[in-house]
């Protein structure tokens, strides 16, 4: 059975990103005359705090996931492009899909009110480890598949240039960097499958997405992708790391 | 107990678990990334010193987030934000950098630099525990002076106090200003025809102002926090759903945690995990 701590941390970060990305979409002011949409966004607004706090976590996650999918498919793709562009963006779709997959992870077993009410329950999965593994794998794959944007990085670096003369620098960037990032996009998802190579592959992917985030203004998408990548970290490692960080208090507090 | 003694013990000499300030550090770094990240992008129009500051910002704030050389990283991030807010924002007149959000983030980071926020939930903590394990000694205590945490709480109190003061005039308390905000942000050109809109706006104006007069003081008392903290969290949730506030709600939620008792927070985390059982 897998530890539930990694899924719980994923849950907390995911809700914060949804709040950050959909602040405008969740405001009732924009759809007072659409009762169905008002109902969906109200349900989502009520479900998200429950998911964040871990209160009836699985049910709340299911409600939040379905509401997000409805926003994407009904009011995103179903609306005129002009009105639905934000809701059909890659960022919204990744967040909505991740919320649905979170239903299959034991996200409420740690760092939650559910756990507070049953402190003696083990911080472990809920009996469907295969489903959890599949859900975790899909999340990580999404993060890694984002490497596909990396070949575009050289052209996105255009604004920084070198010495105010981007023209002289770009041929070098286009010529030498593009094959490197394209190779990364192909190899990193494979390297993550190898336990020994995984930390290095994740580190390289994190730095690459971080650079793209800083230089190209990916906005929240960069953070969403980093979160997806974090799903590739084995839950046992996360559990062990937290054990180390929260080691019992030393008897002599005055020693500090 | 004399009042000056109380002040010294509860504020200046306050000590306790560092887990809460560790969590505050992580939240602060994430909020800074969300709000300041858009301003911290280099381009070919920038002078070299500004590009250097931006590179330093990303290194320092990343180290602050993961808790690596935490004190130095937090102090460096704070110094950069002070420079960006006061010099680039106020002195050079870059308006986007001057807002109550950015001021709150800047001061939040400055106060955190006065706390041992790297002693918990950090790479520094990880390394310290590993060192202790190698030498077969007990792990270092997650304990330290926390007057910086009190300064964060004091900042929140002053924000509520002055916003309550600013709202205490007839135009706001009558509900007119609330009506104007809702007309601008929600209803558009037509005044809502449903009955009771006017009295509801008056009631919400009086309640908001009353809560904001109450919170600066009431939040400091542990016994009242089971009512005052949810009230404050709810107030900001309503603001988030009512008007466009960018990162302000999440900033205030994070800073409100500074009122919690650090040792009690430590015990909560212990209860939530299997550690130590």
How does this structure look, described?
The complex is a heterodimer of chains A (256) and B (277). By secondary structure, chain A is mainly alpha-helical. Chain A contains twelve helices and no strands. Chain A folds into two domains: 1-127; 141-242, no CATH class. Chain A has helices at 5-21, 35-53, 57-73, 81-84, 90-102, 113-117, 129-145, 153-156, 166-191, 198-216, 220-230, 235-245. The radius of gyration of chain A is 21 Å and the shape is flat. Residues 156-174 and 251-256 of chain A have low confidence and may be disordered. Chain B is mostly helical. A two-stranded antiparallel sheet of chain B has the order 1-2. At the A-B interface, helix 1, helix 10 and helix 12 of A face helix 2, helix 6, helix 9, helix 11 and helix 13 of B.
Outline:
The complex is a heterodimer of chains A (256) and B (277). Chain A is an all-alpha fold and 256 residues long.
What's the Cα radius of gyration of chain A? 21 Å
Shape of chain B: globular
Main pleated sheet of chain B: 2 strands, antiparallel
Intertermini distance of chain A: 38 Å
Keywords:
heterodimer; A: 256 residues; mainly alpha; B: 277 residues; globular
Write the layout of secondary structure elements.
The complex is a heterodimer of chains A (256) and B (277).
Chain A: H1 5-21, H2 35-53, H3 57-73, H4 81-84, H5 90-102, H6 113-117, H7 129-145, H8 153-156, H9 166-191, H10 198-216, H11 220-230, H12 235-245
Helix pairs in contact in A: 1-2, 1-5, 1-11, 2-3, 3-5, 5-7, 5-11, 7-11, 9-10, 10-11
Chain B: H1 3-12, E1 15-17, H2 19-36, H3 48-66, H4 70-91, H5 100-112, H6 123-134, E2 143-145, H7 147-167, H8 170-173, H9 176-187, H10 197-218, H11 225-242, H12 248-256, H13 262-272
Antiparallel strand pairs in B: 1-2
Helix pairs in contact in B: 2-3, 2-5, 2-12, 3-4, 4-5, 5-7, 7-10, 9-10, 10-11, 11-12
